[in-house]
Design a protein that fits this description.
The protein is of the alpha/beta class and about 400 residues long. The chain folds into four domains: about 90 residues, Fumarate Reductase Iron-sulfur Protein, Chain B, domain 2; about 55 residues, no CATH class; about 120 residues, 3-Layer(aba) Sandwich (Rossmann fold); about 120 residues, Rossmann fold (3-Layer(aba) Sandwich), CATH 3.40.50.
């Protein structure tokens, strides 16, 4: 569907300005073109042929976080993020794609083994110091200015992927009946293996069997970039590879993956069996555990950051708080603006370093006020961004996935 077919939806914007109060980008910059009503005015100008397609549109179209906060505060509920994604797709058709995205979406993300090999090479370069030396010599500029500036963003890359140590296949647990398919997101697989191992341990402890799936990327990065064809190919590959009848539940510990997997039947062609498959974000699965299963904590003070794809994408606000508050001995402290985007937004922080840092600094100021020992969340991209924020602000706290905090009998 073309952006031109959404004119009536775009025209619902009454320019009231309530989106300004909720938009992390606008609150960081004060730039009208960076808030929902400004972006919608831009789309309207394109449709009315007052604004031509050219590379000057890249900034206004691609610096949106797609966090959805504007729609949550919009009286006519204009789905600005979805409209921006649609416009990004047409921008790619009119102006062109970048080679790095074609490489990522067509040759790496569909193939976990290739992605693992690239990650091993990146780990070797990063952990040996070779990448830092290349940056000092200016060699990383060939990948773009933002990539070069973000080299220190991740201090160390694990040498092996999660599915290199925990091979795809079926692992048995002490449960009597429940069978779970564990969908492993790219961020957990490549960068946050400790979280993945904690998740797998908890899933096995509460089920008869857990199957670590040989899935590829869920397709969200391609969809967010506007490459609908690539997103569709990734989704279809997962739909064909995952046999829904084998599992009672499909669980993932990446809230971004969970939100997008739930949208498959809306966005793509899915089988009847897939439509009947129950897909759960890990925090949903956790909320269903009996309270008696939770082991006491060691008098920890924790706070929680809501990933955008959990709190607005799936409506999961109460579930993680309920789980954390049910752990004996844990001191839960609510975070001001807990549902504000941290600026990670997938690969956003790597592509918009300065803007993402401004958004992050606001978040970390509130985190510091909690004086918590652990900052908990349920999205690997958020974890990476928040870990960067903790280092940047010298905060003595550990960033953890909720699966790493919870212990079950």
């Amino acid at each position: 569907m073309s952006i031109f077919e959404h004119y009536d939806t775009i025209a619902r914007c009454n320019r009231c300005g309530f989106c300004q109060a909720a938009c992390p980008v606008f609150r960081s910059t004060g730039y009208e073109g960076g808030v929902a009503r400004g972006r919608l005015a831009l789309l309207r100008g394109i449709i009315e042929a007052n604004i031509p397609w050219n590379d000057e549109l890249e900034g206004p179209l691609f610096d949106c976080l797609l966090c959805g906060a504007c729609t949550a505060n919009c009286f006519p509920a204009v789905p600005t993020a979805d409209l921006v994604v649609q416009a990004r797709g047409e921008y790619l058709e009119q102006v062109g794609r970048k080679p790095i995205h074609r490489l990522l979406f067509e040759y790496l993300l569909p193939y976990p083994r290739r992605l693992h090999a690239v990650a091993r090479a990146a780990a070797l370069g990063k952990n040996s110091g070779a990448m830092d030396m290349a940056q000092s010599l200016g060699l990383l500029r060939i990948f773009g200015r933002e990539f070069s500036r973000n080299n220190p963003f991740i201090p160390r890359i694990p040498g092996r992927a999660l599915r290199a140590t925990h091979k795809p296949g079926t692992y048995h647990g002490p449960g009597k009946s429940i069978k779970i398919g564990y969908f492993v997101g790219c961020g957990i697989d490549i960068l946050q293996q400790a979280a993945g191992m904690a998740t797998l341990k908890l899933l096995r402890r509460s089920s008869a069997q857990v199957t670590v799936l040989n899935n590829c990327c869920c397709g969200l990065p391609a969809w967010a970039y506007g490459d609908m064809a690539a997103a569709r190919r990734l989704a279809q590959k997962n739909i064909q590879a995952i046999a829904p009848g084998q599992f009672d539940l499909l669980v993932t510990d990446c809230s971004s993956c969970a939100g997008f997997l739930k949208k498959y039947q809306e966005l793509f062609d899915t089988s009847a069996a897939w439509k009947q498959l129950r897909i759960l974000d890990f925090v949903e699965w956790l909320a269903e555990r009996p309270s008696g299963n939770f082991l006491p904590a060691d008098d920890w003070a924790v706070t929680y950051h809501d990933p955008c794809h959990a709190v607005r994408g799936q409506g999961l606000r109460a579930e993680p708080r309920q789980a954390l508050s049910r752990i004996p001995g844990m001191d839960y402290r609510e975070l001001v603006e807990a549902d504000w985007c941290c600026g990670g937004a997938g690969a956003y922080a790597l592509q918009h370093h300065e803007l993402a840092t401004r958004v992050l600094d606001r978040k970390m100021a509130h985190v510091a006020d909690t004086r918590a020992q652990a900052l908990v969340t349920s999205c690997p991209a958020c974890m990476i961004q928040l870990e960067h924020g903790a280092r940047r602000h010298n905060l003595p706290m550990t960033v953890m996935h909720i699966s790493q905090v919870v212990q079950i009998h």
